[in-house]
Amino acid sequence: MTPCELNVRAETFQERTKAESEERLVLAYLTARWSRAAKMPELDSILGKFKHESKKQKTDDQLLAAMERIHAVFGEEKEPENMSG
Questions:
Q1: What is d(CA 46, CA 54) in angstroms, rounded to the nearest whole number?
Q2: How far is CA 35 from each of CA 28, 38, 70, rounded to the nearest angstrom?
Q3: Nearest to 18 by CA among 10, 28, 8
Q4: pTM here?
Q5: CA–CA separation, 80 vs 84, rounded Å?
Q6: 61: alpha, beta or left, given left = phi > 0 and alpha = psi -120 to 50?
Q7: Distance of CA 64 to the CA centre of its chain
Q8: DSSP secondary structure of 36-75
Q9: Distance CA 10, CA 12 (A)
Q10: Distance of alpha carbon 34 from the chain centroid
């Protein structure tokens, strides 16, 4: 593993750890808040918001930019292989 790859893995681990901590904090907050709620909202109405958000698709430009970032970190210039045979 190169130093660059190690750095990328360390940054990824930090981001994942931070996201997990934030998720736990939000869960604790919502648990405390909902335990005091007079009327609970329907679960389907809450989950529906998350399902709707996950269906957003990225544009071609966003996908290309993501692939270029990945290539800059891990890839090296290679000629495309001929797929015809």
A1: 13
A2: 11, 9, 44
A3: 10
A4: 0.44
A5: 12
A6: alpha
A7: 17
A8: T-SSPPPHHHHHHHHHHHHTPPPPHHHHHHHHHHHHHHH-
A9: 5
A10: 27
The amino acid that residue 54 corresponds to is S
Locus of tokens 């736990």: 24
Rounded CA separation 40/36 (Å): 10
Contacts of 9 (CB under 8 A, 6+ apart): 1
Task: Note whether 31 and 23 are within 8 A (CB).
Answer: no
Amino acid identity, position 10: A
Q: pLDDT of 21-69, one tens digit each?
A: 999 998 998 888 888 888 877 877 777 776 665 556 778 888 888 888 8
Cβ–Cβ < 8 Å for 34, 40: yes
Residue whose entry in the numeric block shows the structure tokens 């990945």: 70
